[in-house]
Structure formats: C-alpha cells, structure tokens
Amino acid sequence: MLTLEDARKALAKGSVIIFAGPCTVVYEGRATSRLGVGERLVLIKKDRSILVHRPTGHEPVNWQPAGSMIDFLTENGLPVIRASNANELLKISFTAQPSLMVFDLRDTAEFEMYASEEDMKKAVLAKPSLVEPGFKPLEEERQVKRTGRVDILGLDALGRLVVVELKRKPATPEDVRQLSAYVESLNSEFGRKPRAILAAPSTTKAARREMEKTSVEFRCLTPRRCMQVLREAKGLDSYL
Amino acid sequence: MLTLEDARKALAKGSVIIFAGPCTVVYEGRATSRLGVGERLVLIKKDRSILVHRPTGHEPVNWQPAGSMIDFLTENGLPVIRASNANELLKISFTAQPSLMVFDLRDTAEFEMYASEEDMKKAVLAKPSLVEPGFKPLEEERQVKRTGRVDILGLDALGRLVVVELKRKPATPEDVRQLSAYVESLNSEFGRKPRAILAAPSTTKAARREMEKTSVEFRCLTPRRCMQVLREAKGLDSYL
DNA sequence: GCCTAGGTCCCGTTG
DNA sequence: CAACGGGGCCTAGGC
C-alpha cells in the first residue's frame, strides 16, 4: 500500500504518478471551476504537469501545466493534492482512499510530424509552380524581414509582388481577413497593392465570398501533394 | 497478469484501461507522425478515446478522439493497439510486455465553469452600463437574429446602433478585424455604420493600432468584474 | 517577458 | 452535415 510519502519521493525521483479514486476538484485562476464527487484518474508527470481525467473525453477536465508546485496534504485523513503556480490553484480532494501507482518511464525518442503548414512552405520553396507557373519566391533574407504575418513573399511571372498564405485545412473567412489585412498594410507602406494568394485544400463558402470582396485569389493545394513534392525533391537530392 | 482478452472485456464493459510500457507509435490521418521506442502510458477511456502520454508535457503525444474503433492485436507475441476511424489510424506497438490496469470509474458529477465569455455576456445584459452609461441591449429576439458573429447588439444613449464584442483575454488584432468585418457587413446592409465596442481586460499593442485605423472603441472589462456583477444581480434576485 | 500563429487542436452550437 | 468561434486552450518561435 503506497502512501503520500511514497508519492512525494516518486515525484522527487522523476517518476510518473497516477492516483485513481473518488474526488472533488476546485480550480481558481484564469477562470474558476467546480467538479463534484466522482471517480477519476489523476496523472502527475515528472515535469509536474498534472491532469485530471474523467472516464470519458479526450480532454482532461482539470489540469495544471508543467512546472507547477505540487503539494500532497492530508485533510480529514484523506489525501489532497494542491497544484499551484503564480496565478492559479488546482485542488483535488479525495473522498475515499485512492489507489496510487508509480511508473518509471524512460522516453528519449524524437517525435516526428509531417504535413504541417511548415512542410507546405518547404514544398513551395522547393517547387514554386505549386503556387502558379512562373512564381518565384524572394530570397530567404527578404522573406525573413517580412516574417510573422505572411507565409511566402514572391514575384509572379509579370514581376508583381505576391503574398502567399498557406493553410493545411479548408480556408476560413478569418484566414482571408488576415491575408487582406496584410495586403492593406503593404499597400499603405509601398503605395501599391500586391497580389494575394490563399493556398489551401479548399475554402468554406463564406471564405469564398470574402475572397471575392477583397480580390484574394484561391489556389488549391493539399498537404498530401506537398509531401509528394518533398519526397521527390529529396529523392532527387540523393540521386544527384 | 492481465491479458489482451481482459482488455477487450474491460473495454466492452465500460472500464477505463491503462497500458504502461515501451512502444512505438505511428499515426496517419490529417497529418502523419512517427515516434520511436520509449516508455509511455496509454489511456483508453470508455468512449474509446485513446491517449498516449510521454513522461512529460500536458498534451498527449498521440491520440484518437472518442468513438474510434479499437482493436487489440498480437504481433510477434507482443500487444499492438490499433485505433481507427474513417480517415485516421493510430497504431501503438509494444516492444516488451506492458503492464495493464483496469479501472471502473463512476463519474456523473456536473462540471461547472465560471468567468467564460458567456458569463461576461450575462453580466452585461444584467448591467448594461458595464459597456457604457446609457447603453441598452436590444431585446433577446433581435439579438438572436444576429447571433454567431457579434456578442451583443444594442443602442447607445443617443439611440445609435452599437455592436459589442466581448473577450475574456487581451484583445488581439484578429478580434478587431472580426468586429470591423461585422461592422462593414452591417454597413452595406443598412447603409449606416454602427459603433463598435471591443470590451476586454486589455489590448495588445497591434490591436490598439488596428482599432485606431478602423474606429473600433475599447472598453476595459474584466471577467472578474463581470462575475462580481453576476453575484450582485443574483443576490438581488433572491432578496426580491 | 509579451505577442503571434499553428494544431491530428477539441468541443459545443447553430444553420 | 458543414461551419464557425471559444478555450484555464497548449506549445513553439520571435523579439
């Protein structure tokens, strides 16, 4: 039978802890929440992130991000977990003795994710015609100066400035507004409107309406196609 | 020693399952990911949501939302979990015998959250002067017709139409664009520009610039203040 | 430290 | 069903 003292030691040692049992949960911070008695799992990781999971749902019902201060207390003979940081407090009060499990997890593997918006950008830089024939991205340095608002700056076949926004999901009116706001700021800076191209697998209807109003152009581009292009480019690289 | 057959039965019965052990994870779907060998916790909930947790970090490294199809297989004498839905596949392959835990969690409690944007709206409807002296929200019916884009429609002390956008966090340029897009659509519909008020605890600098350009007004309003007003309104209700 | 943008975001609500 | 916006979003990157 593991005790709170075991939990303290395990956490100090860098283990992962799970409590399983009936509890109530109170949270005060950016918002406030209350959760009555029910049986839940409480995960405490070695970085002192903490998750309260109900028996359903992808998302934890309550949590505290990594780096919080974790205290194990006893109130009325039952365990209480306090997880706090500068502005927030999470308090988990068990209403019966929970079971306690300790895990020593070694995990140093790298996590690799593909088909992100960043990958789409790499693909377009490797093969600019994905945007349109004759499209030429500006050199990296001039890209960087404009970073943060637009994904790719370039010139079209006629030498006109083009701002390209990439989306891995169907484009929304929000995406269109973001792009046309950027066009406007370039316009007032240089006195000339650049072309704007929104490259995404599709658009919502409202986005399409917004595009017509603001003369943002749509170019169909899927993450899948971009990954193909990246594979081909890589294959070519290793061949050469 | 629990077996995969036990896991199948537990899941069918509505229990929550945790596997703990070394595994690799492959995901194919909206994106693609690869995770090499490492020791992790795999939670499978009764709604067949599934979470793969590494020893650090609030977020699961891989997952599948509720309702996926879960298969427990054996490959080379070791357990494999396949969690799939129409378009996505998550495959967890253990590289050594994992431990298996089963939990029967009863949890029917209601989760209550306060200080949401919705609560801010309630507070303003209870005490419209939170927006400005003389502000009068339109009746609920005329609100509803306009729902989905703007939080509150009302009239100011001079009878002018006012659209109010509430935010519980510092207002961003995106928030300003959203509001002014709405103002524009009302303008082209009625031929007259309504006033626009963004009520939030603060604004980012870029948002402030965007507000000046588009004549969106700022009103400082915190979730905390709104909760006070709601408590007072409630207290008054129970007194009357 | 603030601020911005992405995410397999998830999730609820509405048309 | 798509679509739209909130969230204690979290997290990574820039400045």
TrEMBL record, chains A, B:
**What sequence ranges are listed for the domain Endonuclease NucS C-terminal?**
116-227
Q: Tell me if DNA-binding is a UniProt keyword of this record.
A: yes
Q: What is its main location?
A: cytoplasm
Q: Which GO terms describe its cellular component?
A: cytoplasm
Instruction: Provide the alphabetized UniProt keywords.
Output: Cytoplasm, DNA-binding, Endonuclease, Hydrolase, Nuclease
**Enzyme Commission number, as recorded:** 3.1.-.-
Location in the cell: Cytoplasm
| Keyword Cytoplasm among record annotations | yes
What is an example of a GO molecular function annotated in this UniProt entry?
DNA binding
Q: Which InterPro entries match?
A: Endonuclease_NucS (IPR002793), NucS_C (IPR048301), NucS_N (IPR048302), NucS_N_sf (IPR049173), tRNA_endonuc-like_dom_sf (IPR011856)
Q: What are the residue boundaries of the Endonuclease NucS N-terminal PH-like domain, all occurrences included?
A: 16-107
A Pfam family it matches: NucS_C
Record function comment: Cleaves both 3' and 5' ssDNA extremities of branched DNA structures.
State the family it belongs to. Answer: Belongs to the NucS endonuclease family.
UniProt name for this protein = Endonuclease NucS
Q: Which organism is it from?
A: Caldiarchaeum subterraneum
